[in-house]
Specification:
The complex is a heterodimer of chains A (321) and B (430).
Chain A: H1 8-12, H2 16-20, H3 32-66, H4 83-90, H5 92-105, H6 108-123, H7 129-141, H8 144-154, H9 160-167, H10 181-210, H11 214-222, H12 227-238, H13 240-256, H14 259-265, H15 277-287, H16 291-320
Helix pairs in contact in A: 3-16, 4-16, 5-10, 5-13, 5-15, 6-10, 6-13, 7-10, 8-14, 10-13, 13-16, 15-16
Chain B: H1 2-29, E1 31-37, H2 46-59, E2 63-69, H3 75-85, E3 91-95, H4 99-103, H5 112-115, H6 124-130, E4 143-144, E5 148-155, H7 156-161, H8 173-185, H9 198-212, H10 218-221, H11 230-244, H12 257-266, E6 272-276, H13 283-290, E7 295-298, E8 312-315, E9 319-323, H14 330-339, H15 343-353, H16 370-378, E10 384-386, H17 395-408, H18 415-429
Parallel strand pairs in B: 1-2, 1-3, 8-10
Antiparallel strand pairs in B: 3-9, 4-9, 5-6, 5-7, 5-8
Helix pairs in contact in B: 2-15, 9-11, 11-18, 17-18
Classes of the chains: A mainly alpha (321), B alpha/beta (430).
Chain lengths: 321, 430
């Protein structure tokens, strides 16, 4: 038996069926069955709640705590107030890492737009498109660690890319991609934020486009709309949620999941030119053993992610509205 | 029929019980020692270490060695995690005289009583470094396996080809530059290695021996520094000059030291290489590859601004083994650490890897490598200056490499900013 909880609407127009039930006049008094259901529900969600507490809430709260200490990862710790934050704001590496992180974010529109176009092209279904779909998705099959190593070898001064450029007579384009600060960061952005997004993005958009009502395209064709008009006025509005979702996912991938790629791609170098906030806090915490100081950095990273999450929710609500 | 079945069943049960009891007794007497190590995965070291482990297990048949190769660049954080959990390995490999090691002091067994019978085999200087904060009062915490140092190996055949005297290594900065120029003119890469990571780092350490000499300990206390030292600034200028004159290999910025640069020198692709005394990239590896009589050595480059001359940067303890406080088999764990530092195990280690052992009872001269005579000339009290890296936490090395990259690869900073930054990271990692 399901008890319908009265709300403003049901109070205005009482459902007779509900009123006929014996407990309907005493809606807040729980029967033993309800209590049992309630207990079962808590029991069922308990593992998830415990796991969330242990692996998400507790680390987040402890991170805030450690950011006010000089803890080195083991042994005793001392409360040092805002010292870590003061040091961080005076640390050139912090501003450079933040700057690099923000520059990487600028690549995201390209990392969303290219898969979108490719999906739209592949959706048309030219000959052999299934083969190209598989090829495009291939980088996604490999992990970031392997991809980082492959691109590190590929982009070296004496690597295959420069050899190829020299072979086709573009010697002046054969640059030291990984050893010039700006070039290294641009290479990182191009490879990580754009190229590596193409596989998943294309497949994801293809799946989203498959859900668009074909009649909309037919109607557009009847009205004389060309490929571009159909893409702009039918496809894009229909998969807007998916575009926003991929955008937000890409932001998170850039801000908080790039470590393993950077580690094998450039090791944060040359110098500190490809250090992102995430990469720096790893080196500070785990290489330098300054867990307290690294925690202060991750507090900033936490707030950046939180702001992105809030913006995402607002954007979705705005779209729903 | 029935009785024979009963007999057979009884026999079977008896056998099963006997096997079970036998296994239990054997398991109770068998000891497994877990060893954590950052060298075990190295292809140049692994076969030798496997061999020594085998020898140890033959000597102590009730002991099984579980040797775990841990990643070099995350080793100390793994040890910190083990220390926090108070479980993990029985024996741990450690660098000598690193802040990181001294910080792990509470997890390491005091070894003074264990080593008493044979302490004299290793010089007190090495034992001092093996004691927490170089303080004997705080106890000896690791048994030294190697001594370490950095210096310049050179290819005598390439020197000869360039018209240089192969038996006369460059004596000072001017002769070093002149040699580089002659080598370059002869189409030979003067300094093979890389600006990417350890070559520049090791070169600074080799030059620092002449800069700080016996006063190097002042870097730990803060009495000595980098920013206020004109000789250190000059060393940085020298590095820039070498780079600007094109004396490094053209792809230097892309070549990692381990093992690419080492292999390049061993393959004769360059004339001078800043290598190590122990582990890998050492006298043995190069002599075996280039010919025993074809490898020369000089410890540093003499230059006018430096206070000292012909100094050899040196670590009295390169690596060694310590025993953890939570080990249930401390006695045999110490025996294992000892096996790598003295006797047959240590000799195999020296012979096969080219390690410099601080153990005076092991004579590597018998191996017959002429370059060892050159090196040994500088391994005297008069010439030794302790490696400045050992005055800091190991992360100083990573920060130093990043800063060298900014000076020599990206050219984001000039020499003044470089010394200022090195001073800053020294303060951070002291």
């Amino acid at each position: 038996m399901v008890l319908k909880k009265p709300n403003a609407k049901t109070q205005e127009k009482p459902d007779m069926e509900v009123l006929m039930t014996p407990n309907a006049l005493k809606p807040w008094k729980k029967t033993s069955l309800q209590a049992q259901e309630s207990r079962d529900a808590y029991l069922l969600i308990a593992p998830l709640v415990i796991l969330t507490f242990v692996f998400i809430l507790f680390p987040v709260v402890s991170n805030f705590f450690y950011s006010f200490t000089d803890w080195r990862g083991f042994g005793k710790l001392n409360w040092i107030g805002f010292d870590n934050f003061r040091t961080m704001f005076q640390d050139e590496r912090f501003w450079q890492s933040l700057n690099n992180t923000l520059i990487l974010l600028l690549f995201i529109p390209l990392g969303v737009f290219i898969p979108l176009c490719l999906a739209a092209l592949l959706r048309g279904g030219f000959k052999g498109w299934k083969f190209f779909r598989a090829i495009i998705y291939l980088p996604q099959v490999l992990g970031y660690v392997i991809l980082g190593m492959i691109f590190n070898l590929f982009l070296r001064l004496n690597g295959p890319l420069n050899t190829l450029l020299e072979m086709v007579g573009l010697k002046s384009w054969a640059l030291d991609w990984l050893n010039r600060p700006v070039l290294a960061l641009l290479s990182l952005g191009t490879v990580y934020s754009v190229f590596l997004r193409i596989g998943f993005g294309t497949i994801y958009f293809l799946a989203a486009m498959a859900g668009v009502d074909e009649q909309l395209y037919e109607a557009a064709r009847v009205d004389g709309a060309g490929w571009w008009t159909r893409f702009w006025h039918v496809t894009l509005p229909s998969i807007r949620f998916n575009i926003e979702f991929l955008f937000v996912m890409s932001v998170i991938e850039n801000v908080a999941r790039a470590f393993s790629f950077i580690y094998t791609f450039s090791r944060g170098g040359p110098g500190y030119s490809t250090h992102t906030l995430e990469y720096s806090l790893y080196t500070l915490g785990f290489t330098n053993g300054k867990i307290g100081y690294a925690s202060a950095w991750s507090v900033i990273l936490f707030f950046i992610c939180a702001i992105i999450a809030v913006l995402q929710i607002r954007l979705m609500r705005w779209n729903d509205g | 029929m029935k009785s024979s079945r009963k007999v057979l069943s009884g026999l079977l049960i008896f056998l099963l019980v006997a096997i079970t009891i036998g296994n239990a007794v054997f398991a109770a007497t068998e000891i497994t020692l877990t060893v954590w190590d950052f060298k075990y995965a190295d292809p140049n070291m692994n076969p030798t270490m496997v061999k020594i482990d085998q020898m140890f297990m033959e000597k102590y048949p009730h002991v099984k060695i579980n040797h775990v190769a841990q990643p070099n660049d995350q080793y100390y954080q793994l040890l910190r995690a083990a220390a926090q959990a108070r479980r993990g390995p029985d024996v741990v490999m450690l660098h000598g005289a690193r802040g990181d090691v001294y910080e792990l002091d509470p997890m390491l067994v005091r070894l003074d009583d264990y080593i008493k019978p044979w302490r004299a085999e290793i010089p007190e200087d090495s034992w001092k470094v093996a004691a927490t904060n170089r303080d004997f009062e705080k106890g000896i915490k690791l048994i030294p396996m190697t001594s370490q140092g950095f210096g310049f190996y050179y290819n005598k055949a390439l020197f000869k080809k360039a018209g240089l005297d192969p038996n006369e290594p460059p004596k000072d900065w001017d002769s070093f530059l002149a040699a580089c120029e002659k080598l370059k003119a002869a189409g030979i890469v003067p300094i093979i290695g890389g600006l990417r990571d350890f070559t520049t780092n090791f070169m600074f350490r080799a030059l620092a021996a002449n800069i700080y000499g016996k006063e190097v300990y002042g870097l730990q206390t803060g009495e000595q520094g980098f920013a206020n030292n004109p000789a250190f600034k000059r060393a940085a200028e020298m590095m820039v000059e070498l780079k600007e004159k094109g004396y490094f290999n053209p792809d230097a910025a892309s070549v990692p030291y381990f093992m690419d640069a080492i292999d390049m020198f061993a393959a004769g692709k360059g004339a001078i290489f800043c290598g190590l005394l122990s582990d890998v990239g050492n006298w043995k590896q190069f002599s075996d590859a280039l010919g025993k009589d074809n490898v020369g050595y000089f410890p540093t480059i003499n230059f006018a601004e430096a206070k000292y001359k012909d100094m050899q940067t040196f670590q009295p303890v390169g690596i060694g083994y310590g025993v953890t406080t939570w080990s249930k088999n401390k006695d045999i764990a110490v025996k294992y650490a000892e096996f790598y530092a003295r006797g047959e195990g240590a000799m195999v280690f020296v012979e096969e890897t080219g390690a410099f052992s601080p153990n005076t009872s092991l004579d590597s001269k018998v191996l017959g490598y002429p370059v060892l005579d050159e090196i040994n000339k500088y391994l005297t009290d008069e010439h030794i200056s302790e490696d400045y890296q050992t005055m800091f936490f190991s992360a100083f090395e990573d920060a130093m490499i990043a800063t060298c990259q900014q000076l020599l690869i990206t050219e984001e900073i000039d020499v003044d900013k470089f010394v200022e930054q090195v001073e800053k990271i020294a303060v951070e990692h002291r």
